[in-house]
Each structure stands twice: as C-alpha cells, then as structure tokens.
Design goal:
Blueprint: H1 3-25, E1 33-37, E2 43-49, E3 52-57, E4 67-71, E5 85-86, E6 93-106, E7 108-116, E8 124-132, E9 135-136, E10 139-146, E11 149-150, E12 154-158, E13 162-170, E14 175-181, E15 190-194, E16 207-214, E17 224-238, E18 242-243, H2 247-270
Helix pairs in contact: 1-2
C-alpha cells in the first residue's frame, strides 16, 4: 500500500470515529457534569447508568433557589469547557429526556429541562414543573431568560410527576419551542414557543441541562423528607451535537500527525543506504 493510500484510509477511519463518537457520547450521562448552585449537603446526584441520573433530596431544610443538576459541558459555557457536547446555534436541533419524580417530604421542589448558553441559565429556555409537598402544581410551565432577566412564564398542560420533556430550536428564526409528552413519544401534547429569543442571546453554542430545585414560589422551600427526580433516556431527536473541543479541531490534529508520519516515511525512503 502506498503512503498516500495508507493516509487516506486512516483519514476515513478518523472521520468515521469522530462523527460516531460525537453523536453517541452526548447520550452517555457519564460524559455529563454535575452542577450545584450553591452546593447543599441535602441535595445529591448520582449517575446510575449511561442513560439514567437521579437527583435526590435527602433531608432539609434547603434554601430556596438552591439547584442541583447536570449539563452536557464541564465549564460555565462551551467556550470555557474542555470536554462535553453542545449544539451550534446556526443549525436546528431537538432533544428530549424522560423524568419521574417521587416525593416523601414537606416543601416546594421544581424540576426542569432546557437549553442555554451558560451554566447559570442567564440566556436559556426550557420546561419546568413545581410541586408542593409532593403534589404537582397546576401546569408544566415554559420558562426563559434573557441576560439573566426572566421572561413571562407560559402554561403548557396539566402537570404530573412523570413525562417526556422536549426542547426544539429553530436556527432561522431563533425560536425555542418547549413541550411535554405524557405518552412516551417525541410528539408533545402541549408546547409553547419563545419566538426569536435566541436572537437576544449571545449566539454561543447551546448546551442541554436538567435540574432539581428547592422552590418557594407558592409556599415554603424544601423543608424535610426525601425526594428522587430520575432523568433518563436523553436523546437527540434531530440535529448533530458538536464535541468540546470540536471534532474539527481533533481532525486537524489527526491530519497533522498523519502528515508528520508521511514526511518521516518519505525521508526514510529517500535516504541513501
């Protein structure tokens, strides 16, 4: 085999491996990063398997607005991260995750799933549900923020303690649609759309995340007892995630290495005996 054919073969293998890895690993929760804001000993998270994470309250009280969750990159933003996966805002995508919440305790909790540009949710949109003493309150809600300022929440459909949460992004318009499927498929029975909201963000890569929160919106924050919010089966309905660092960077590094190998091979061929 000539060196040119050898390099071409390895380049093809590299492209296939990079593409497969990027799409496959974003659905592996072992690749996600736990976030706490702020940390509280009564909120814990565990990666149960590649496809399931449990966020738990194991006591109390927990101050209102305390969060624990997981996100798909390991830094505050995709640009700050050294590993993980995100989505290019120039392309459409849709993602979904299943959740189930069980509560034996007193106080308010919230669960949610969404996309955004940063760990703090300063520019973000998603779907959330609130509970009081384990009972869902009224409706799933679409929530969004621009520059850390809340947009007006929008009611989606009657809340329940399990379902599939779906988020879709339209690049051409900057729309983010959030919804809930209660029958286990990727077609939500209820949705709301934040029209053009991404146009008011910073045009940075978008990262998915989910959370459990101590919430006092309609009463007291989480006070005591136990609760488990199980998130499972995260998947990409459509669209292609980008690896952090991006696959193009990895491919360029591969090209450079193969180029050096080829140069060394030619030097050995051309050296006099």
């Amino acid at each position: 085999m000539t060196i040119a054919r050898w390099i071409s073969s390895w380049l093809l293998v590299g492209v296939i491996l990079v593409t497969t890895s990027v799409y496959g690993d974003i659905i592996d929760f072992a690749e996600w990063t736990q976030i706490q804001d702020p940390a509280d000993a009564n909120f814990v998270g565990s990666v149960d398997s590649a496809s399931q994470i449990t966020l738990s309250a194991i006591g109390g009280p927990v101050p209102a607005a305390t969060d624990i969750g997981y996100q798909s990159v390991n830094g505050n933003t995709a640009a700050d991260s050294t590993s993980g996966y995100a989505f290019d805002p120039s392309a459409d995508f849709s993602v979904a995750v299943d959740f189930s919440l069980s509560v034996s305790g007193i106080g308010g909790l919230g669960v949610g799933f969404g996309i955004g540009e940063d760990q703090n949710g300063s520019n973000s949109a998603g779907v959330a549900m609130l509970t009081a003493n384990g009972m869902p309150l009224l409706s799933f809600v679409g929530a969004a923020r621009i520059d850390d300022v809340n947009e007006t929440p929008q009611l989606i459909l009657a809340a329940q303690n399990s379902g599939r949460l779906v988020v879709s992004y339209i690049a051409a318009s900057g729309d983010v649609q959030v919804g809930v499927s209660t029958n286990g498929d990727d077609t939500p029975e209820g949705t709301v759309t934040f029209f053009g909201i991404q146009n008011s963000w910073n045009n940075e890569p978008l990262l998915p995340s989910f959370f459990l929160r101590s919430d006092n919106t309609l009463g007291s924050a989480w006070t005591s007892g136990t609760a488990d919010a199980v998130f499972s089966g995260f998947h990409v309905i459509d669209g292609i995630p980008i690896a952090i660092p991006e696959s193009s960077t990895l491919l360029l590094a591969t090209l450079g290495l193969l180029g050096l190998l080829g140069w060394g091979w030619r030097r050995r061929r051309q050296s006099p005996i």
